């Protein structure tokens, strides 16, 4: 995981396939999940592929956690970007708070006992890759993660129609 102030060198997150959404309006975790799923399914299906269902479930969990954290702890969602990469899908959740939470430095261990919260970030750490939290020059921060996606087992869409 990388924590930066936004002034360092650009990070490399795999070769993009040129498909991305820019700053989607996502006032709720549900709208963010729907948007991320529609982007991934449309892009994969256009290539005759089907994403692995377990990976899609993991993606939706991570989207929910990141957007909920931005709403609850980050003074609201300032933007939500979804872009496909060779390795999966990159999510960038922008919020209005400059505060980088202590949990961002965590190990991903689940809390012992039920405290009503504290499970979301450990789930993100366990499910996502290439996690970074960086301050934005104009204020706020961006949490960026790569969600790996595999092809579903079985024939691709194009092969099934051939």
Detail the topology: elements first, then pairings:
Blueprint: E1 2-4, E2 16-20, H1 29-46, H2 53-73, E3 77-85, E4 88-95, H3 120-127, E5 129-135, E6 141-148, H4 157-161
Parallel strand pairs: 1-5
Antiparallel strand pairs: 2-3, 3-4, 4-6, 5-6
Helix pairs in contact: 1-2, 2-3
Secondary-structure element sequence?
A: EEHHEEHEEH
Put simply, the count of helices is 4
- The total of beta strands comes to 6
Identify low-pLDDT runs: 3-20
Proportion in β-strands:
15-25%
Structural class: alpha+beta
The first-to-last residue Cα distance is: 43 Å
Rough outline: globular
What Rg do the Cα atoms give?
A: 16 Å
| Largest sheet, spatial ordering of strands | 1-5-6-4-3-2
What is the residue-mean pLDDT, rounded to a whole number? 81
* Sheet having the most strands: 6 strands, mixed
- What share of the residues lie within helices? 25-40%
Structure overview:
- With 162 residues, the chain is of the alpha+beta class.
- The chain is built from four helices and six strands; from the N terminus they run ββααββαββα.
- The protein has a six-stranded mixed sheet, covered by helices on one side.
Pick out its properties.
single chain; 162 residues; alpha+beta; six-stranded mixed sheet; disordered N terminus
The gist of it:
By secondary structure, the protein is of the alpha+beta class.
């Amino acid at each position: 995981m990388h924590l930066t102030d936004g002034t360092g060198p650009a990070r490399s997150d795999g070769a993009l396939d040129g498909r991305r959404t820019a700053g989607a309006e996502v006032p709720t975790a549900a709208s963010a999940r729907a948007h991320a799923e529609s982007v991934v399914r449309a892009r994969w299906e256009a290539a005759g592929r089907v994403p692995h269902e377990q990976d899609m479930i993991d993606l939706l969990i991570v989207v929910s956690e990141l957007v909920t954290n931005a709403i609850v702890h980050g003074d609201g969602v300032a933007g939500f970007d979804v872009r496909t990469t060779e390795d999966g899908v990159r999510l960038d959740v922008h919020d209005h708070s400059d505060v980088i939470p202590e949990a961002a430095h965590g190990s991903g261990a689940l809390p012992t006992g039920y405290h009503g919260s504290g499970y979301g970030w450990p789930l993100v750490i366990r499910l996502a890759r290439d996690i970074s939290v960086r301050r934005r020059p104009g204020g706020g921060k961006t949490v960026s993660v790569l969600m790996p996606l595999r092809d579903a087992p079985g024939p691709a869409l194009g092969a099934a129609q051939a």
